[in-house]
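# step 3/5: fold
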Amino acid sequence: MKRFQVSSAALTIGLLLGSAGSSAAEVGVTDTEILIGALGVLTGPLYNNGKTIYDGVETVYNEVNAAGGINGRKIRYVREDDACKPEQAIPAVKKLIFEHKVFMIHGGGCSNASLAAMPDIVKAQVPWVITASTAPQLTDPVNPRIFTTMLAGWMETAGQLQRLIDTGAKKIAIVRQRDAWAESRYKPLLDSFAQAGRKPVLDEEISADPSDATGVALKLQAAGVDGVVAVLFPKAATVMIRDMYKIGYKPLVVGGSAIGDVKAMDQAIGIRGALDNFQALSPTKSATDPSMAQWKAKVKKYYPQDEFQTWHMFGIASGQFMVEGLKRAGRDLTRDGLAKALNGLSVSSDAYAGPISCAAENHQCYRSMAWFSFINGDIKEMGLTQLK
């Protein structure tokens, strides 16, 4: 009987040790590898945008792997296509979680697809660092394991207003197109006006596909407006700025990332000098900035068919943030440990206009934007805005 009791005790200890050993092996982590999944648009009309973001992320990971990895492990990055469609995002994220068995997800482009994937990610308690989706409800309220390295949608209009205030505009107006996209940014913009102790001098709506905006331009001019927050897509913005220029009216117009390709805006308007008082935001520096030459070369090394662009820079900045987070989480890597490591982490990226900084109470970790104009045939950086 005594020998049986000793054997039982030994067996119990062995089972406990075995259980402890198995719990230490986190999903997606081996002694030599960390498996990370990307969810994003890889087919369809937005294919190039999604692919280049993840090429940027993987360029960072490839460079880290070439230098020996992180805490003795190399990163393997697997991609699944959501096609920018909610109905495809759900099976794609399930495949990452349950078939690939990834440690975490690092991706997310189209907000509608990311929102559809979110319930499965939350249920599985998989860490998720979002690269490009802007829907604020992905990260607000805070989920302990979900972070974003992209501007949330409300930040753009807040930044546009702040830019006008910083440049000295006194009479600021809103011009927005008449659709759901603009409406989603409109209330946050009014909140920003209230927080700044201001009211818009005029609040004008135009069609998303107008043929003429002379009437709006004349109203703004008559009211003495010297700054315009443009909540517009390219077609509406080009018509408005064109018609302002035609009547000799040049207030400072600031646009969001939807009209951030200032060179394309110039080509669409086709009038030299019409954009001299137009600025649009971007989360990144210019893709032609000399500081990006090294990253341009690195992307070309791994993806020779890619033409370096802003989308790569979204991925590069997010990848740099992720690498520092994994380093901070240490060799004993767990999902919970990574989430804790990302809280309080601040990373300065050479691709972004400002730092990526997370806090326990705020997982919308990026709040900076650069402003660009197209003057005399060149893209020029005009300044930076850092939201508080």
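# step 4/5: annotate
The two ends are 71 Å apart (CA to CA).
# step 5/5: archive (pending)
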